[in-house]
Task: structure prediction
Amino acid sequence: MVEVPVPPWRTPPKTVLARVPITQDAIVGAALRVLDAENLDAVSMRRVAQELDTGPASLYAHVANKQELLDLMYDRVMDEVELPGPPDAARWREQARELMVTMHRTLSAHSDIARAALANIPTGPNALRVTEALLQILAAGGVPAQPAAWFLDRIALYVSADAYEATLWPQSMVGDPEELVGSLQAYFRSLPAEQFPATLAHVEQLTAGMPAERFLFGLDLMLGGLAALVPPRG
Result:
């Protein structure tokens, strides 16, 4: 085709920039960008639509409502959880611990996405992949079916709640942990000894340990309790 100048009396053609196709995958990706930059409260259908340079109405053909969007976001994050490998009967506690530590680390890397799992039952394919892996690990270790199922529920709540709580601390407290610990210790020591003798006797212990240490202590405590329910072999 021969290229010729556009006559001055005609409207010249305009270059139209193609938008990113509006798909469920693109919507979830945009929502996660908003989440990681701010927090879960900042995620709305309108805000995600702005991220995609479109209107909110175009999103509803792919996502029914905000709750479905949160479910999809959570499941996308669960895809990042690495599984510990084939279940090993001799190492079932270590494997379960590794999986929960990895899940906690993954949730903590995405602002307060852990909140989306609270008061909810994640049933997306990636969340189910993680629960299936844990159930197989527990079965290999000889954990009876009912305790395994209830442990799955309780440990998921523990991991999610711990990851979410870390996002709730005011920045003033997070900025200087030593100052916070010192203030707490001073307050506890100011309590009346006749009313709070046990508290005064445990001031150092009550304020000891970093969040990661406390998380692992609780995790090991729950795994130890579960191990007590495993029938003796042979």
